[in-house]
Specification:
Oligomer: single chain
Strand order of the largest sheet: 2-5-1-6-7-8
CATH topology of the largest domain: Rossmann fold
Radius of gyration: 18 Å
Order of helices and strands: EHEHEEHEEEEH
Number of domains: 2
């Protein structure tokens, strides 16, 4: 998978707290001057517009592609006639690499790219990293009693994760191994 800027994912089972953690980490990264693109995978149907609003009504009336723009925001919606899983490599094409320093991805855990595993013991789910060689670090809410050389961070210490992401980005840029 190729992107013109560093790409880093967050992989976990549903209910592990990926979004909650990212909501805490994103401001810390932005304080460091990073411009961040975000891709979030959803297994559910969702709406980004409100029934009754013009863009929603036009899309529901038959527009398969809908771009809504204001001076401060743009949203591009595409209704797909076939229910096929989105491909991460295709979604990356939507970003303008000149406007970003890092792309973070929530989900797409089955794709092959660098990911941080988020693990919450209360889910009762197994760890992903033993089966996923693309996981480069673990973030958990408890001390994981497993053998691994992977870096570990506390899910309740978002500044640890922000520091790790900053180092990861720098390492990618220094080695020119931008994924």
């Amino acid at each position: 998978m190729h992107s013109a800027i560093p790409l880093l994912g967050f992989a976990a089972y549903s209910g592990s707290g990926k979004t909650t953690l990212l909501k805490k980490v994103l401001p810390l990264l932005c304080e460091q001057g990073l411009r961040i693109g975000m891709i979030k995978h959803s297994h559910h149907q969702f709406e980004v517009d409100t029934p009754g609003k013009d863009s929603y009504e036009l899309r529901k009336a038959g527009a398969q592609q809908m771009l809504i723009a204001s001076p401060t925001r743009q949203a591009f919606m595409i209704d797909k006639p076939q229910a096929l899983e989105p491909q991460l490599r295709d979604l990356l094409q939507a970003f303008d690499p000149a406007q970003l320093d890092l792309i973070l991805v929530e989900g797409f855990r089955h794709e092959a790219f660098a990911k941080i595993e988020v693990h919450r013991s209360a889910t009762g789910k197994p760890l992903l990293f033993p089966q996923d060689e693309n996981i480069i670090a673990l973030v958990a809410d408890a001390d994981l009693q497993v053998q691994s050389a992977l870096p570990r961070m506390d899910i309740n210490q978002p500044q640890q994760l922000a520091a790790f992401i900053l180092r990861y980005r720098q390492d990618c840029l220094a080695s020119e191994q931008i994924l």
